[in-house]
Specification:
seven-stranded parallel β-sheet, globular, alpha/beta, 20 helices, 15 strands, 529 residues
């Protein structure tokens, strides 16, 4: 990094202590690595993490689940001992629970934490689109009261909230860095025009209580709460429970931190890194990867999507840089609320048909270079995209006789196991419900304020802190970098590492019909994606 490049950022963040939540997640790891690598004068990075029965301390969990990550390969390769010393010197791990008052800390511990902080970055969230409503409200909305309390305890510590572009819900057209009115039911506003969500949450909690009274079992309760979440989200103008509760979280912060230092960073669909710390770094399977795995594994013959439609993808390193720029702005010009969108559709739109073509070209030409992704099999030369209505009708037409045959087999006492083709059809239908809203958009996200901020801080263009999506070469990124990243990082079996999960297992679960009952599935607080 040159002397001028990032000098304002380093000046403003020099000597600062920053608390980050959600660092066990994908984006959280990228942000932590970037701060350690590119902001050398930052004084300390404090990570709020929950304890785990697997580890004797949260520091041990940090070592096993974060410090061991391949995202740090660049730093580790340059100087392994230096990286270890850097973590020991600058990374401080705090055992706490974001959703509990004081994070579960004693009053004096909470106050001591507040006294030692200069910045709070909240990137923790439940990113489950179909989360049980009570859990989604707790994790994505109400826990922000604890962030506010920490800010106030530290004499108005600046807050950076990681949200999502999709808080705009069913609104269409050009979407700017502002708060738009819900596309469904109206929500009260105060004299400043800010949305007041308390009454809405109370209404939702009453409905949650009624649902809990009706539940016959834990599994039944989980289904009822998931269905309630989707139903209420649709009524108020959102596609899913995740985006609805994230919007309410934004409003809670905006109203309570008026005239204080608040920045909200809204990423679009976060995917693998474009350049740093290494091209294509990714963890797990993200929204846009559904189409890649469906094609690579040959499980379904078509996919829901408009070939001319734009899907808003943004590399994770651009998002991390956007957060760092927002952090810098809160120090440089305190006492304001700023909203920034890290997105691509407004300035460098990626059309789904083009991405499909890049994927197919790379897959057919070089499938042998990706043995874990393509399993040694040459994929199809073409992968059709179908309008949602046509796709749904096709799925229903095929599913109906298969379901009837399955029921008949069950009644006759035959094996209650779905055939492979039946599983693939179910898979296609499930993927459609998640992917369709994001692959057939009626919006265009704009990031003018973020680009202006980069210009203001002297990091515009192709710099160490790149945020401009206009610099993304989609053919190179999606057709090469991203696919190679999935092969190298997402499909690495980490099951042999303490406290780690198998990424191959995640992919397998995406393309099979086998899953644990809802009551047996443990949902963690994850980084927003």
């Amino acid at each position: 990094m040159s002397n001028k490049e990032g000098s304002v950022i380093n000046k403003e963040l020099s000597g600062k202590h920053v608390l980050i939540t959600g660092c066990t997640g994908f984006l959280g790891k990228v942000l932590l690595e970037k701060l350690l690598r590119s902001v050398p004068d930052i004084a300390g990075i404090h990570l709020l993490m929950r304890g785990s029965k697997k580890f004797s301390s949260v520091r041990e969990r940090f070592d096993a689940e974060i410090a061991s990550s391949t995202v740090f390969n660049h730093l580790r390769t340059e100087d392994a001992a230096g990286f270890e010393n850097l973590c020991d010197e600058k990374v401080h791990v705090i055992s706490g629970e974001l959703t509990q008052p004081n994070f579960g800390l004693a009053d004096d511990e909470f106050q001591t934490l507040a006294n030692n902080l200069d910045m709070i970055v909240n990137s923790a969230a439940s990113v489950n689109f179909r989360e049980e409503l009570d859990k989604a409200i707790t994790i994505n909305t109400l826990c922000l009261n604890n962030i506010i309390a920490l800010s106030e305890a530290g004499n108005n510590i600046p807050v950076v909230q990681v949200s999502t572009c999709y808080v705009h819900g069913f609104n269409t057209g050009d979407i700017y860095e502002e708060t738009k009115a819900p596309a469904g039911r109206s929500i009260p506003r105060n004299t400043l025009g800010q949305y007041q969500i308390e009454s809405t949450i109370q209404k939702l909690q009453k409905k949650i209580s009624k649902v809990k009274e009706k539940a016959k079992s834990k599994g039944h309760l989980s289904k009822l709460l998931i269905d309630l979440g989707i139903e209420e989200a649709h009524k108020y103008g959102w596609n899913d429970t995740y985006t609805f509760t994230k919007w309410m979280g934004e409003q809670l912060l905006i109203e309570n931190l008026t005239n204080k230092s608040l920045a909200i960073v809204r990423p679009a669909i976060i995917e693998s890194t474009m350049s740093g710390p290494q091209p294509g770094w990714i963890e797990g399977v993200k929204v846009a990867d559904a189409i890649i795995f469906a094609y690579a594994r040959g499980k379904i013959a078509m996919f829901p999507g408009d070939a001319n439609g734009v899907i808003d993808i943004i590399p994770a390193d651009l998002v991390a840089n956007s957060i760092i720029l927002a952090m810098t702005k809160t120090f440089k010009n305190p006492g304001h609320t700023n909203i920034y969108q890290s997105c691509s559709s407004g300035s460098n739109p990626a059309r789904i048909g083009q991405l499909r073509d890049y994927m197919v070209d790379e897959g057919t030409a070089n499938f042998e270079a990706y043995p874990k992704l393509f399993k040694g099999k040459r994929p199809a030369d073409y992968f059709p995209l179908a309008p949602q209505a046509a796709f749904d009708n096709a799925m229903k037409a095929v599913q109906l006789p298969l379901d009837m045959a399955q029921r008949a087999r069950s009644i006759l006492g035959m094996e209650d196991q779905k055939w492979g083709f039946h599983k693939n059809i179910d898979t296609a239908a499930k993927l459609s419900t998640v992917f369709a809203f994001y692959s057939q958009p009626k919006y265009k996200f704009h990031n003018g304020k973020l680009l202006a901020l980069a210009e203001e801080l002297g990091v515009a263009g192709d710099s160490e802190f790149i945020v401009d999506p206009a610099l993304i070469d989609w053919k190179k990124y999606f057709g090469k970098t991203h696919i190679a990243g999935l092969e190298k990082y997402a499909l690495v079996d980490k099951s042999t590492k303490p406290g780690s999960k198998s990424e191959t297992a995640k992919v397998k679960s995406l393309f099979t019909n086998k899953s644990k009952p809802a009551q047996e599935t443990k949902k963690d607080i994850k980084a927003a994606v």
